[in-house]
Design goal:
Layout: E1 6-11, H1 15-31, E2 36-41, H2 47-50, E3 57-60, H3 72-95, E4 99-104, H4 108-118, E5 122-126, H5 133-138, E6 145-147, E7 157-159, H6 166-169, H7 173-184, E8 192-196, H8 203-211, H9 213-218, E9 222-226, E10 244-247, H10 253-259, E11 262-265, H11 269-277, E12 282-284, H12 293-303, E13 307-309, H13 317-328, H14 331-344, H15 349-361
Parallel strand pairs: 1-2, 1-4, 2-3, 4-5, 5-6, 6-7, 8-9, 8-11, 9-10, 11-12, 12-13
Helix pairs in contact: 1-15, 3-4, 7-10
Amino acid sequence: MTALRSVVLAGGGTGGHIEPALALADCLRRHDPEIRVTCLGTPKGLESELIPSRGWDLRLIPAYPMPRKPNADLVRTPGRIGKSVTAAREVMDDVAADVVVGFGGYVALPAYLAAWRRHTPMVVHEVNNPAGLANRVGARLTPFVGLGGEHVSLRNGEVVGVPLRTAISALDRKAERHKARAHFGLDPDRPTLMVTGGSQGAGSLNAAVAGAEAALGAAGVQVLHVIGARRTMETVPAGQGAPYVSLPYLDRMDLGYAAADVILCRGGAITCAEVAAVGLPAVYVPLPWGNGEQRRNAIPVAEAGGGMIVDDSELSPAWLERNVIPLLTDPDRLEAMSAAAARYGRRDGDEALLALVRRAVGA
């Protein structure tokens, strides 16, 4: 058996790469308080903001996006990647890495190549379909590939779920409901709609819910509306007939989930995993651009009965009045959707990924 003493985690750029990495870091430390965990990142990603604030060691290396078209950047790419690989290997040597776990993003590709050159075991974790370029490369270099769900496809992949923060994975929504609603100044007994378009917000969600303010209030539905740190609204609803609480940002998503009966949200992989795990019925509004991964993330939860999907172009105050108000005012339907979401969701993604890491190193 090989001792697991030093782990390098490589995932940056977006929260979808960073949050699973930090959840695994927490899991590693719970099992072994002495284990060394080092996070790789780049100066441009969110990791510089998120990782040090959680108390983890962050080492920055240069990393560059792969050009999608033939141009001058394509010619410079091999040299740039070489510099990134060298920097990643220097970090691995410095911390005597036993294993590298990658979650995608610009920093993951040089980490995989450095681990391969160093003959260091590596594990790839992917939550999106289609998988990103870095993880597609990584999956060719290791047989240890963890997938966030059955809808994700990648070479050598096995489903382990998505590592979640313990504040989410251990959340008992019913037990925390009154406390959470009191925290936000909401009525303890009214049906509650939570709205969030992610940390940056979503203009279409904001506009639709604000437009439905009167109908929601008339139905006795209160709203917890996370507008987004970079979003503004001409008129922030004050609440007509029921409380309407608006916030620019929410760092205690566990309290938001506990307060809510239904969430109106995008379809990011982490959002889908968290909402299903805690058994919160969801109305998913996938991003209307990109490669369609948000819709693919939400489809399995909706098909399991834990939510519904509406196109961004179809979302409107009238749609909410026709579809969401009847749901929020039907306790039996809410309970059935909550149970279906919880059955689909997983709370053990961190432990399952740790087991895969241990297999990779023979620990």
